[in-house]
């Protein structure tokens, strides 16, 4: 059915009731389409008609009778018998239509229907995922539409009726919390990396709602309830305000919030694309309000933080940097009160994150403590032409960037606190809880460049990260920024220089002769097909050997005629050109294993390039070497 002509709404309603008599359940399906699915124009048309009807009119009376009969069929006779998945599916359809009628058509619930809806909403559910979703919707319905649920009672004592409704809802909420306590062990935080069962998914929005009530945020509460209901109720703001005192005194106590937050699981995976009500929002609010310390809860928040950061992926969730900062500030501010509950992430834990055996192995080439020569020799597999530490998929460095920001913020916070209090370090006291050993094992420049190259993924973090690195490690950014500007202005790095459809301009100087039948890599940008670091080093040595020999005898003219020296030079130019193409198309990661060779041999070759007949006239080749060195400097620390 599709509404094209908005006329005769009474006739349409008669047709809907007629269809429902022929096929049970059609009334809910069609009303849902009219009110929720067919757009604002159709919804406004049918809502305007229903608003004009009063409770005694034919169609409103029929709706009342239908809803009362339908809801009574869904409620089990035995109060202890849980609602099945099939019943909950029908109940959700009924509740959505009734909520839409209330929100758009100002539908008034008759007292009998209110009583049955209250029974249906607070009835025991099956321990399934659908049962959890039903509880979430029931929670939003009871809080958002509480004023519409008036129980039948003495007409002269309407306040008593409202109090009975509140009491039943409070008892239901307390039961949900008690069920959570009974099903979860007291040491839940120690196992926080284990997700909650699907039947307890309702507790996350319940906890978030409790936090919002405690922090007195009616706007976010209204948004949360509206999102759960799928519509915005005009009187929702007033209903929320009237609920606050009751819920805070009877259900959402501060101790309850802090205790249950420790049991909230981490989100896997966490990114900006996840838009549901997340545990990270709960933990962040509790850290910022110091609820853990106020209630003296012995929890290890650092374990939860580590687990959540490790499960974070790009694009980065915007609350993660705030979570890092809140945990650090909370830790320093309350360590003396709650002991290990606010402990920082230890240096050993951070070092294990940046372990060379992990997924950051390639990045470890850029740490100050890295033995690049040994790492390259160990990690290169000559039989397959691949890196043991490498991967065909670019690793997600979101956790590494967050742990780097964590360490930097701790360092900055301690220094700032000392300056603000004019307290100097005692003899033998370190300025930071983390030693210099940690900074030697973090590829700071590499991670900074990774974040800079992906502003869409790391927009919330990169400005803060750059600010801290510039303040405390300026030697890593001042020269890097100058080189970055130089590379941006250099036309060599423009896209046309790496157009695979054109011959490489670096090969213009008679490179048609190959050194061996299997050495042709003119069209390849795969470094494993081109050469290994050892082969590149041999090419440098072969090109430099004739120079040293002829310089000793001072016979430069003979060098020009040496076919061996020209062949070695051409081969080296070809390999350097291949490296440039790979870096231009795949990024500087491809160049890292060649860093030691280029660092040693480039300087040697540039010093003697004037006496070599091929290199002295090939300015293009010299420019290639200079640019490769600049690209390496952007991510590898000065040695």
From TrEMBL:
Task: Give the highest taxon in the source lineage.
Answer: Eukaryota
Protein name according to UniProt: Uncharacterized protein
Q: Which UniProt keywords apply?
A: Nucleus
What family does the database annotate? Belongs to the Integrator subunit 2 family.
**Any one Gene Ontology biological process term?**
snRNA 3'-end processing
Subcellular location(s) of the protein: Nucleus
Tell me where it mainly resides: nucleus
């Amino acid at each position: 059915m599709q509404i094209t002509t908005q006329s005769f709404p009474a006739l349409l309603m008669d047709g809907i009731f007629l269809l429902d008599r022929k096929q049970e359940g059609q009334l809910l399906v069609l009303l849902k389409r009219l009110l929720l699915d067919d757009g604002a124009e159709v919804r406004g048309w049918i809502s305007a008609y229903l608003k004009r009807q009063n409770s005694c009119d034919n169609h409103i009376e029929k709706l009342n009778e239908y809803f009362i009969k339908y809801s009574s069929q869904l409620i089990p006779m035995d109060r202890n018998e849980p609602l099945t998945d099939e019943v909950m599916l029908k109940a959700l359809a009924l509740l959505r239509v009734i909520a839409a009628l209330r929100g758009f058509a100002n539908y008034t619930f008759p007292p009998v229907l209110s009583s049955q809806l209250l029974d249906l909403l607070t009835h025991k559910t099956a321990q399934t995922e659908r049962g959890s979703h039903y509880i979430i919707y029931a929670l939003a319905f009871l809080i958002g539409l509480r004023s519409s649920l008036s129980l039948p009672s003495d007409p002269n004592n309407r306040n008593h009726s409202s109090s009975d409704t509140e009491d039943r809802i409070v008892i239901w909420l307390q039961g949900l919390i008690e069920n959570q306590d009974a099903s979860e062990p007291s040491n839940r935080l120690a196992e926080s990396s284990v997700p909650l069962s699907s039947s307890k998914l309702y507790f996350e929005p319940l906890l978030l709602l409790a936090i919002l009530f405690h922090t007195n945020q009616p706007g976010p509460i209204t948004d949360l309830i509206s999102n759960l209901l799928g519509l915005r109720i005009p009187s929702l703001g007033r209903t929320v305000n009237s609920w606050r005192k009751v819920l805070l005194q009877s259900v959402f106590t501060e101790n309850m919030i802090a205790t249950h937050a420790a049991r909230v699981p981490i989100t896997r995976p966490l990114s900006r694309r996840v838009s549901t009500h997340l545990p990270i929002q709960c933990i962040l609010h509790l850290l910022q309000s110091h609820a853990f310390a106020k209630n003296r809860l012995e929890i290890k928040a650092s374990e939860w933080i580590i687990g959540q950061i490790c499960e974070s992926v790009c694009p980065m969730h915007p609350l993660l940097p705030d979570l890092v900062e809140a945990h650090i500030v909370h830790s320093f501010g309350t360590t003396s009160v709650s002991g290990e509950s606010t402990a920082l992430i230890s240096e050993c834990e951070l070092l294990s994150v940046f372990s060379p055996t992990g997924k950051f192995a390639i990045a470890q080439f850029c740490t100050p403590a890295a033995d690049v020569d040994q790492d390259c020799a160990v990690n290169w597999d000559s039989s397959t032409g691949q890196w043991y530490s490498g991967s065909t998929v670019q690793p997600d460095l979101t956790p590494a960037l967050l742990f780097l920001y964590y360490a930097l913020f701790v360092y900055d916070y301690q220094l700032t606190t000392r300056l603000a209090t004019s307290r100097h370090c005692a003899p033998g006291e370190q300025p930071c809880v983390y030693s210099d050993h940690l900074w030697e094992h973090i590829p700071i420049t590499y991670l900074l460049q990774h974040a800079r190259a992906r502003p869409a993924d790391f927009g919330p973090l990169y400005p803060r990260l750059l600010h801290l690195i510039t303040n405390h490690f300026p030697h890593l950014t001042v020269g890097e920024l100058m080189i970055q500007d130089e590379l941006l202005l250099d036309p060599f790095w423009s896209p046309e220089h790496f157009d695979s459809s054109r011959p490489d301009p670096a090969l213009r100087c008679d490179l048609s002769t190959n050194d061996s039948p299997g050495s042709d890599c003119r069209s390849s940008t795969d470094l494993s097909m081109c050469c290994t670091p050892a082969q590149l080093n041999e090419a440098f040595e072969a090109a430099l050997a004739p120079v040293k020999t002829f310089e000793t005898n001072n016979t430069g003219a003979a060098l020009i005629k040496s076919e061996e020296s020209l062949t070695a030079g051409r081969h080296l130019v070809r390999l350097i050109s291949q490296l440039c193409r790979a870096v231009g198309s795949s990024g500087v990661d491809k160049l890292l294993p060649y860093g030691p060779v280029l660092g040693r041999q480039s300087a040697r070759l540039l010093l003697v390039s004037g006496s070599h007949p091929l290199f002295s006239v090939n300015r293009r080749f010299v420019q290639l070497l200079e640019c490769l060195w600049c690209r390496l400097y952007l991510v590898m620390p000065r040695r």
